[in-house]
Amino acid sequence: MVVTSKYIGCRVTGLYIGVDNVQRYFPQRVTEIELQLDHLRIECKLSPDFWRDQPEIRDPRLCIWLESKRLNGRGRQATVPLSMIPSGENSFILGPAALHSPVTRVRRQPASPTALHPAFGPQPVGDAAA
After folding, report:
1. Distance CA 119, CA 121 (A)
2. Strand boundaries in the chain, DSSP class E
3. Of 45, 43, 40, 1, which Cα lies nearest the Cα of 19?
4. Which among 43, 67, 77 has a CA at the least distance from the CA of 57?
5. What is the pTM of this model?
6. Burial label, 54 (beta-carbon count in 10 A; 0-12, 13-18, 19+)
7. How many whole angstroms separate alpha carbon 83 and alpha carbon 29?
8. What are 103-114's pLDDT values in tens digits?
9. pLDDT tens digits for the chain (130 residues)?
């Protein structure tokens, strides 16, 4: 999931998760999550408002880390898109989101006969098929 840093003025205040991501990845019974920030692991508490009208994570250590990412080659006011990847139960790895890569949904294709049984083997392509 792609998330962004949250600001008040020019100060980082937390990590904005978004309503859709909260509904998809965060059961309401969860009161805290673990975040992997580069080499650092932290536990962040989730407020009751997280599932209602404030889908953001606030933690002083997280804000310091976000601030350091914002200053690395970005302007003072630039938000940083981040990738938050599930890595276990209530655990996520937070890192830079790939720039210029659109979010796409991958449709699962039906398996080919080759994939279902090795006896079918590779099929000739192009002029070799004639």
Report:
1. 5
2. 2-8, 11-16, 32-37, 40-45, 56-57, 81-88, 91-96
3. 1
4. 43
5. 0.68
6. middle
7. 23
8. 433 334 444 444
9. 999 888 877 788 889 999 999 999 999 999 999 999 999 999 999 999 999 889 999 999 998 888 887 655 555 556 678 899 999 889 999 988 875 444 433 334 444 444 444 444 444 555 554 4
Query: Tens digit of pLDDT for each residue in 73-89?
Result: 555 556 678 899 999 88
Q: How many Cβ atoms from other residues are within 10 Å of residue 114's Cβ?
A: 12
Domain residue ranges in the chain: 2-96
Region class of 24: left (phi > 0), else alpha (psi between -120 and 50), else beta: alpha
- Going by C-alpha positions, the residue among 65, 69, 24 that lies closest to residue 42 is 65
